[in-house]
Amino acid sequence: MIARLTGIVVEKEADRLIVDVGGVGYLATVPLGTMARVGEPGAEVSLHIHTHVREDNLALFGFLTGLEKEIFERLITISGVGPRLAVTVLSGLSPEALAAAVRQGDLKSIQATPGVGKKTAERIVLELRDKLDGLGLEGGGGEPEPEPLLDEAGQLAADTISALENLGYKTAQAREAVRRFLAGLPAKRRDALDLEGLLRGALGRLNR
Q: pTM of whole model > 0.90?
């Protein structure tokens, strides 16, 4: 059973990474947030790994943080949520945002994930609520958790979030929409963004 991989990024494609560990290339499916933060080919990376075993298949799912892996492993215990859908959920919602949506019964935010219908969103809310204990995601006020992609975008992200708030969106919704849009872009495109482009992209996420 593989629990962790530390090596060199060889290839990045969609939601999959190839990591070279001692001359052996391991293929891992990862959420968009992890994909955006692992660096370009040639960079060193260390991933928390969930090894998913079936009779005819063995698949690796990788995460930069133990928290993402813990949430993933709780998601796949839910009826109708397989590992690929769980990765898609975590591509659309950070662990903090998912926990907040579950506790608030915010089906709309969860349904914004491609492939998640109303019934699946309802099951996620119902079954995940009691499985969040002990993960440090209790929430309840205070400053939002640091988000590397938002910190990297700096004032541009702050201005976009402010603009979304002026349009009537809640701060948490605005932050998550900006984060999700940034996570879906390669580093070069993120560097070339301006306020209009980031705002349009975030609105696109909110309106899905």
A: no
